[in-house]
Specification:
binds adenosine-5'-diphosphate; binds zinc ion; alpha/beta; 6 domains; Rossmann fold; six-stranded parallel β-sheet; 745 residues
Length: 745
């Protein structure tokens, strides 16, 4: 038998090996094997069996070891890996390594432990003799004789204060039996699993939910691939529809992957899901998958899925690679979230990978959001995806009332600038009097975005990165939010020595300070990565907030995701312009999504919510459409703009970044390269650039960039790979290709 193996060894090539007789029935497509590569032993994944090669089998090297008794990559995952490598221009071995937890690659299986039991009863006389000759052995024997089941060796010896030698003496004489047994750690009791999971009361779907579910069920019943976009306003009960579909998939014997953005994977969501799952499908275990799992937990969860003992996984991005069998349903909640994009190699988008995996597995894929991405929405328009809609909130509540405050007028009528406008302050006062809660959002941490001299105009910048330093008032520092550099804030301008240095723009700290000034008696807490130093502080603050011990919560958008606080009736968006004026063609879409999602946080309880949006550009479409959560209106306008520039989603975008210590060299080589690409590609790909990146320098590395616009990514990537191999790059220039990039700044 000959097999083709993809080695995990730093190069992309299928290598051929023979399989010794003894390993034959263990090898299948997707098996993890150890094979000789050059002089070393490497891991590899079997890609083909009976692979055709000109080599006679006798001259091939043999597979040395098969690491697990089942294929580590099911066929659909192996195909997915090949697709990802081609589409995202990523090395195949890096893609495969990202799919298999490190512990599995190290060959770790289920934990095995030694158990002891009595295998031969000792007659009373013999026991009496033993008690004299070897009193410890006699004690161990007597202890084990009283037990009904075999006991863990380590535990028993520890408790009796004995060494392993005591046991082995008895084992040698056949009195005790020692056996290794497979132990399953309770993978499902992850760090949150200690909470009691109460089965929630069953919920009757409303007619819209019922209709959406019926379509999903019908889609799954065909046994064919298909994608449904579930567009439901915040609070419309999307989760309930997912859960019902999950139940149907499980009943049919299939498995389910349920993706949520990492930030939304809170204990609250997880326990709610578990409770609902218990009500719907009692006994089904749910593996939780996220980036903070320990090796052991990750291994156990992975093994439970790979062996079919668990058929549901809920997790962030990489849960899309769960080795489940018979995948029937893939759910991508909040599908518009940028967090689904991985910002390191392989730079994949989990939503797009989810669609592709569903296709390869013949599964149904549901993409859900209150603000779908335009990428997904055009697929509905093109007839590729089915559209399911939940246009109303479940509790019959009105959508929150959105007030837009024109900060130009505020600034003109107030003496000096204040972070909080008068309508917002008034609304906050009212909430405090009534014992209701407020959240203030500002998408920048720190006190001020920059420090500027009023006299000479000098702005403090990071020495390593070409961005301004952010002023943090609580410890009087200037900090770089890119590289983390920090220094003491100067009391005089470093350029001209003038003492009148001022800050511009604002961040969470300045908003917190302003809130304290207007509401001196309120309990105000700020929550951002600067206050998150202590572990668990985030959770503590949220639970205090939930218990009503905090009146006003000030934070970055990290507090806006997946949280549900019934007593919050006011949300203030302090600076809606921050996200709108990014040099990114998606900045309008982001702003719209942010406003609608944040508004959805207000008034989920019995009282209607109010949202106050502060902006210098109140007429902008992103703001106006968000007032009525008018997705269709926003999409129509924004897609018009995208179409006229032929931006995504009408074409694909590929970002090519060059990085190096020498700016002249970088410029020269990126220009040479661009010339070559333009000549070679002609009309197939539109090349823009090269230009310096918006942030020209990070960590002393200069950055230049190119954009490719194309209708076909796989073709463009193939062409680029060929051209790159022909071009000679200097050693100190690194390149990054980012396909369908999400973060353009
Ligand atoms: P979404 O994910 O669309 O924002 P959720 O699924 O979180 O909305 O639902 C909001 C709330 O409404 C949840 O507390 C949920 O339990 C409840 N809910 C959902 N569907 C129903 C229903 N048909 N009847 C009563 N309550 C429901
Ligand atoms: Zn820096």
């Amino acid at each position: 038998m000959i097999v083709g193996v993809h080695p995990l060894a730093g190069f992309d090539k299928l290598l051929h090996y023979s399989v010794p007789e003894s390993l034959r029935d263990q090898v299948a497509v997707g098996s993890l094997v150890r094979v000789p590569v050059m002089a070393a032993l490497r891991l590899g994944i079997v890609g083909q069996i009976g692979a055709p090669t000109d080599f006679p089998a006798s001259r091939l090297k043999p597979v040395v070891q098969v690491l697990h008794p089942f294929p580590v990559l099911p066929p659909d995952l192996l195909k997915l890996a090949l697709w990802m490598a081609a589409y995202y221009a990523a090395p195949l071995d890096a893609v495969i390594e990202g799919m298999i937890p490190a512990a599995v690659r190290r060959g770790m299986g289920l934990k095995r432990e030694c158990f002891l039991s009595v295998s031969r009863e000792l007659p009373a006389a013999e026991l009496a003799q033993l008690a004299v000759r070897a009193p410890q052995q006699a004690r161990l024997y007597s202890f084990l004789r009283q037990q009904i089941a075999p006991q863990k060796k380590a535990l028993v010896l520890g408790r009796l204060g004995m060494t392993a030698a005591v046991a082995s003496g008895l084992v040698r004489r056949g009195v005790l039996l020692e056996e290794a047994r497979t132990l399953e750690r309770v993978a499902y009791a992850d760090e949150w699993g200690h909470e009691e999971v109460l089965a929630a009361r069953p919920i009757t779907l409303n007619p819209e939910q019922e209709a959406a579910f019926a379509k999903l069920e019908a889609g799954m019943a065909t046994g064919k691939f298909g994608v449904s976009l579930l567009h439901g306003v915040t609070g419309s009960g999307k989760t309930e529809v997912y859960l019902r579909a999950m139940d149907a998939a499980l009943r049919a014997g299939g498995s389910v992957i349920y993706l949520v953005p990492e930030v939304a994977l809170t204990p609250q969501t997880v326990s709610r899901l578990r409770a609902r799952l218990q009500a719907i499908a009692p006994g089904q275990r749910c593996v939780v998958w996220h980036s903070h799992l320990g090796d052991g937990e990750r291994l156990d969860g992975w093994l439970a899925l790979a062996t079919g003992r668990a058929r549901v996984v809920v997790g962030a991005r990489s849960a899309i690679f769960a080795p489940v069998r018979d995948l029937r349903l893939v759910i991508v909640d909040e599908e518009h979230e940028p967090a689904y994009k991985q910002e390191e190699t392989p730079r994949y988008h989990a939503r797009d990978v989810a669609v592709m995996r569903s296709k390869l597995a013949g599964a149904r894929c549901v993409l859900g959001s209150a603000t779908p991405s335009l990428e997904s929405f055009v697929n509905v328009e093109a007839g590729k995806y089915e559209l399911l809609q939940l246009p109303r909130r479940v509790d019959g509540q009105k959508m929150p009332h959105i007030v837009v405050v024109d900060m130009r007028i505020e600034a003109a009528s107030q003496r000096g600038f204040s972070a909080l406008s008068r309508p917002l302050v008034e609304a906050m006062r009212g909430r405090c009097e009534r014992g209701e809660q407020t959240i203030l959002f500002i998408n920048r941490r720190g006190y001020a975005s920059s420090m500027m001299c009023r006299k000479c105009g000098r702005v403090e910048e990071c020495e390593h990165c070409s961005i301004t330093m952010t002023y943090h008032r609580f410890d009087e520092t200037l900090r770089c939010h890119l590289c983390g550099a920090q220094r003491a804030a100067p009391s005089r301008c470093a350029g001209c020595g003038d003492p009148d240095v001022r800050w511009r723009g604002m961040g969470t700290q300045r908003v917190e300070e302003a809130a304290r000034r207007v509401l001196p008696r309120a309990r105000i807490v700020r929550i951002d990565t600067d206050t998150m130093g202590k572990k668990n502080r985030f959770r503590e603050i949220l639970s205090e907030f939930r218990l009503g011990k905090i009146d006003v919560l000030v934070g970055t958008q990290m507090i806006g995701k997946g949280l549900d606080f019934p007593n919050v009736t006011l949300v203030g968006m302090i600076d809606a312009d921050i996200s709108m004026h990014m040099p990114d063609f998606r900045s309008n879409e982001r702003t719209f999504q942010l406003l609608v999602q944040v508004a959805g946080r207000a008034g989920r309880g019995d009282t209607a919510g109010e949202v106050v949006v502060q902006t210098f550009t109140p007429q902008a479409g992103a703001i106006q459409y968000s007032r009525h959560a008018d997705f269709a209106g926003f999409a129509a306008e924004e897609l018009g703009v995208r179409r006229s520039y032929r931006y995504p989603p009408y074409r694909h975008l590929i970002h090519h970044l060059f990085r190096g210590p020498n700016p002249e060299k970088l410029k020269f080589f990126s220009e040479q390269w661009a010339k070559k690409v333009k000549e070679a590609m002609g009309d197939r790909v539109e090349v823009r650039g090269p230009v310096p990146s918006p942030i020209e320098k990070i960590n002393d590395q200069y950055r230049w960039q190119l954009w490719y616009f194309t209708g076909s990514v796989t073709r463009a990537i193939g062409d680029l790979a060929r051209l790159r191999a022909e071009f000679s790059w200097p050693r100190d220039v690194t390149q990054i290709l980012d396909v369908d990039p999400v973060n353009l700044v």
